[in-house]
Every structure is written in C-alpha cells, then in structure tokens.
Amino acid sequence: MHSPGEDNGLRDAIFQYATQRLDYNPPPLDGPQTFEKLSEQAGLTITEEGMGGEKALNVFADVLAPATISTDHPGYLSFIPAAPTEAASLFDLVVSASSIYGGSWLEGAGAVYAENQVLELLASECGLPKTSGGVFVQGGTLGNLSALVTAREVAQKKHGAKDYTIICSTESHSSVKSVAKVIGVGTSAADSGETGAINYESAKAAYEAALAGGQTPFAVVGTAGTTNFGIIDDLAGLARLAKEKDLWFHIDGAYGLAGILVPELKELYAGIEHADSLIVDPHKWLFSPFDACALIYRNPALAKEVFSQHGEYLEPVNKNKDEWNPSDHAINLTRRARGLPLWFSLATHGVATYRDAIRANVELAHQAAKDRSCSCNKPCRIPRRLPSRRSARVSSNRRAGSRAKRTSEKSRFTRPSASPVSAATAAIKPSEPPKIVSRLAPSVTGTRCGLLNSHPSVAQRYVLATSSANSPLATAALSS
Ligand SMILES: Cc1ncc(COP(=O)(O)O)c(C=O)c1O
User: Fold this and answer.
1) pLDDT in tens, 41-66
2) Angstrom distance (rounded) from CA 418 to CA 441
3) Of 76, 456, 79, 94, residue with least CA distance to 287
4) Could you report the per-residue pLDDT of 316-327, keeping only the tens digit for each?
5) Is 187 touching ligand 1 by the criterion CB < 6 Å?
6) What is the pLDDT of residues 430-455, one digit of tens each?
C-alpha cells in the first residue's frame, strides 16, 4: 500500500496540520453539524479511486474538524474535558507511527515495560503492594467491567451461581449499572445522602437490604471523585465493610483519583490501599489524550485466570509464564499501547510537575469557589460567554516566536467562517461571568511545564479537594 517516503507532500501536510493544531491557544471550540450540512459540505469521501491524501486532509480540516468539538477548549465544561500535555499528544503520533502491538510481552516488551512503570507509579501512590499490576484499557467503563468481572468470578468460585449484586452508590457512575447489565448481576445503591458520599453505614444498609431481597452482594464499589461533584466516598469505611463481609473492593477513580498525586490531598483517599482493584483515567485528569484507563489489581493473577486467552496461535505468547501480557488482565487481546503517551509525558516532565499541575487545578478550583462576585450565589464554574470562533481561532507560532495569523485568513487549512450552533454546543451553557476563567487561568499556566490546557478541567472539579462531609463547599455544591 505504501512505501516509506512515498508521499512526502502528504507527510508534510499532516505534520503541518498537527503542529498548527497543537499551537492553537485556545483551539476553536467548534461544534456538531447536521448530517445534511455535512453531506452537503463533505459529500461522499470514499470512492473507488480515492481523492488523495491532501484533499482528504482538506476535507477534514475544513469540514469535519469544525464539526467536532475541541474537548481541550477552556469553555468545554459541560462534559469532562481532555487536556493533554503537548508531550503526550506528540507521543500519540509516535505510537501511531510505530505499529506497536501492546497485547503481549513477546511482541511489545519495550512498550509494555514503559506502560507498567506508569501502573507501578499509580499503584504505589495508592499504597497497593509491589505485586499489584494491570493494564491500560480504553476507558473507565471497560476498566470497571474487567474489574467487576474478575470480582464476580472470584465470588462464583467461592459460592457458585447466585443472584449476585454490586453494592454501589446513588452517585456511582452510570457505567457501574451498565457493567452490571452486561454481566448479568444487579446493583444495590447505597444512599449517598446530603454529603454525596457513601460510607460504612450506608453501604452496610444496602448490603443488608440486598440480602433481605434474596440477592448476594459480591463487590462494593467506592467512587474516588463522583462525576457530578468530584466527591470521594468514605473509602476506609467501605474497605471495612468489604473485609467484614468478604466483598471485592473496587474503586472507581476514573475521574478524581489523579488527585492522590498531591500529597496534601492524599488523606481524602484514605482506605484506597485496601482496594482489590481500582481505575483512573489518564484522559480525564492526567493530561493524556483519549483514550486510556489505568486498571490495577491487587492480585493480577485473579484477572489473568479470567481473561487469559488460549489457542494454538497464542501458544508462543503464553509459553513463558513469567512474561507480562497486558491482554491477560482485561477483556481484550489486540490492544494499542495507550499508556505510552502518559508514560512519555511523565518521563519528560517528571512526576513533581504532575503533582504541581494537579495542585494548581485544585487551587484554582478553590479560587473559583471563593469567587462570589456573580449574583447567583452559587459556586462558580464556567464563563458566561465563550470565546467566539473568530477569537478562538487565533493560533501562536511558537517556533517563529510570533503570533500566527487567524486560520480564517490565508491558511493552508482554511475553515468555514460560519459557526454552526447545534444542540450539543448549546448544551455547553455558560452560566457565570467571563472574568472567572480569564482571571484564574494564569495560576494554572504558571505550572512548571506550562500545562496550558489544564485550566478547562479545573472549574468543573472544584469540589474535589474539599469534598469531605464537613466541607461547606461540597454542601453548597450539592444544594446548588
Ligand atoms: C467516575 C467515573 N467512572 C467511570 C467513567 C467512565 O469512563 P469512560 O467514559 O472513560 O468510559 C466516568 C466518565 O465520566 C466517570 O466519571
């Protein structure tokens, strides 16, 4: 299909596009477009003859990209933003260019070695033993799935087939219910009450209610950073219940567990060291591109028993029992080495920079929470007005050290000037004065590696650091 160096023009164009996209500060927010408009503007893009790479890139740049929200835009606050470091994004390109098979040690030893160092770091921050281990899967949903399948298998080995149920929280992420549906078990939600967090008592009440209803609880899921408010459950209390009732203790830290890297915040996660499994999504708060979820087991051998695949074609990869095959630890076989962008960024900037960046996020959140200048008297989250597409399209040319012209002026990747406002864009409803972001952003941009994009993630997470039951901020947020 392709010989190296065959199409240097396309290579240059792609690198130019990627460089320009990385230089956007901020990037254009963009937004979805109707099917009819896309059909009209992009037309049928796949033909027998092909249109050629440069033309296809132009279709992407001019039509498809503007119809796709930039989740690293500072105003992207309705859903969870992704704010990768430049190092992580650049290395994603390297991963793609390298055709790495990340499923087994035999095929991807170097990549697996590097990914495992990241998992080791995260496990050690959480106080898990050195023997723990896991794999980067596609996202938190699949991380929760593999962890809870392992938990269910462990229970089934002990107790046989039962009407199993998962003890979770009314604030658990939707993926927990989804996992339960997929694996054919129930969920028994403990009441998170006014604090938004479940604890020993509420989880025990849910446990007893499940038993009374004829169900057999096999796992308790604690959330380290709820999706709505960033609230952390009483993990120590849940660990106690898990120990007392012989339940698997899983922690869904997809959203907020990254905060554990900040020493001052560690106590919020007390009890995590007892987890049987946990997840954290680097694409949420570890400055990595989509898509990655670090899934870690206290005893990875239990997962291996469940997920290891066998067949004569897999004999070579299964032969050496001491080799670490990531695919053995989740429901996957072929896999992208999706932990590598985070590995590269951590290796480049150092863990201390990550601690600083996350700390800066939390400080910004505190500042935002303190800001009462708006009239609504609720904790502040997002600017009332988002930057317009025109101003958002300003890019900087770092190499030349000068400001680049607007892409709408004469750029190789000229974009259409009209900005479609769709339902999803409209859903990003600004509700607070614009000054919030502009005034607070510098406190984040001052971080050592210049994680400029980290500010979008912040306001949405402002409750995280103050989410103990006593926190007035958490209470305010809950009542808002
Ligand atoms: C707490 C929590 N768990 C799990 C998930 C699911 O993660 P993903 O979207 O990567 O599948 C999310 C996503 O928002 C989340 O906030």
Assistant:
1) 999 999 999 999 999 999 999 999 99
2) 28
3) 456
4) 999 999 999 999
5) no
6) 333 222 222 222 223 222 222 323 33
Tokens for 281, please give them. Answer: 């999504």
For the chain, counts of helices (H) and of strands (E): 19, 9
Instruction: CATH number for 93-346: choose from 1.10.260.40, 3.40.640.10, 3.40.50.2300, 3.40.50.20.
Output: 3.40.640.10
pTM here is: 0.82
What is the secondary structure of 260-284 as a DSSP string? GGSGGGGGGGTTGGG-SEEEE-HHH
DSSP 79: S
pLDDT at 420 over 60: no
Tokens 């989880």 -> residue = 203
With a 6 Å cutoff on the Cβ, whether 172 touches ligand 1 is: no
Ligand 1: which residue has its CA nearest to atom 5?
Answer: 140
Task: State residue 327 phi and psi, 5-degree precision.
Answer: -60, -20
**Per-residue pLDDT, 25:** 85
Does the Cβ of 173 fall within 6 Å of ligand 1?
yes
Q: Reply yes or no on whether the pLDDT at 374 is more than 90.
A: no
Task: Round to whole Å and give the CA distance between 296 and 260.
Answer: 15
The Cβ-side half-sphere exposure at 326, using a 13 Å CA radius, reads: 33
Contacts of residue 268, Cβ cutoff 8 Å, sequence gap at least 6:
232, 259, 465, 467, 468
Q: Cα dihedral sign for 284, 286, 289, 295? A: negative
- Which residues belong to CATH 3.40.640.10 in the chain? 93-346
Q: Which amino acid is at 123?
A: A
